[in-house]
Design a protein that fits this description.
heterodimer, A: 113 residues, mainly beta, Immunoglobulin-like, 7-stranded mixed β-sheet, 4-stranded antiparallel β-sheet, globular, B: 112 residues, 6-stranded mixed β-sheet, 0% helix
Chain lengths: 113, 112
């Protein structure tokens, strides 16, 4: 079975631009979470979606938004990019909200110049 | 404020030696996770500890959980170069859902 997939793998954007990152969960998983990992730090929770509804939000500005589609895939949008948004963005899927098993995708490396 | 603290943050080991990484946390979660991350890669799940006293072993790694002390340990036995990576512990957030709170990670370097 395919694991969690994310696209694109790498992305370079300019300050002030907008970016959309995509994630497809493991088949049968209904919960998707997004994390930001700045170089040298642990991942920071951004959002969790379950059954197309937001179930949790981390301490990130409103420039960050996300949604989940009927097929349980998800998009993370970041507006008005700042240099500090440069990071590895990880998507994790789990069977359902609150389930202990989370599986991480390969990540999208975003560089803001 | 929810905190997950790992120590040490950097660990340089010789092959064949033993060492322990410590993870202290402040949430009320009874579940703790250990992940491994290789440079430029994603997170690989190593252990899921679901209750007080849980102990799990895989190869040269053994993880344990003491929920009363809010402490988990990752013990490395007879280190080999292939274990060089960054190790993260994480706990469930007190929020609903599956948000994880991660430590800063322990970067392990094993040399001969």
């Amino acid at each position: 079975d395919a694991g969690v997939t994310q696209s694109p793998t790498h992305l370079i954007k300019t300050r002030g631009q907008q970016v959309t990152l995509r994630c497809s969960p493991i088949s049968g998983h209904k919960s998707v979470s997004w994390y930001q990992q700045v170089l040298g730090q642990g991942p920071q929770f951004i959002f969790q979606y379950y059954e197309k509804e937001e179930r949790g939000r981390g301490n990130f500005p409103d420039r960050f938004s996300a949604r989940q589609f009927p097929n349980y895939s998800s998009e993370l949008n970041v507006n008005a990019l700042l240099l500090g948004d440069s990071a590895l963005y990880l998507c994790a899927s789990s069977l359902f909200s609150g389930y202990y098993g989370q599986y991480f995708g390969p990540g999208t490396r975003l560089t803001v110049t | 404020e929810l905190k997950v603290e790992q120590n040490p943050l950097f660990l340089s080991m010789q092959e064949g030696k033993n060492y322990t990484i410590y993870c202290n946390y402040s949430t009320t979660s009874d579940r703790l996770y250990w992940y491994r991350q290789d440079p430029g890669k994603s997170l690989e799940s190593l252990f899921v500890l679901l209750s007080n006293g849980a102990v799990k072993q895989e190869g040269r790694l053994m993880a344990s959980l003491d929920t009363k002390a809010r402490l988990s340990t990752l013990h490395i036995t007879a280190a080999v170069h292939d274990l060089s990576a960054t190790y993260f512990c994480a706990v469930d957030s007190d929020q609903a859902g599956t948000a994880l709170i991660f430590g800063k990670g322990t970067t392990l370097s094993v040399s001969s």
